[in-house]
Amino acid sequence: MILKSLGHHVETSFDGQDALERIQENPYAFDVLITDNLMPRLSGVKLMEKLHALNPHLKIIMITGFPSVLPAGVKNRPLFDGVLIKPFKAKDILECLKNVGVEKEASV
Question: What's the whole-model pTM score?
Answer without folding.
Answer: 0.85
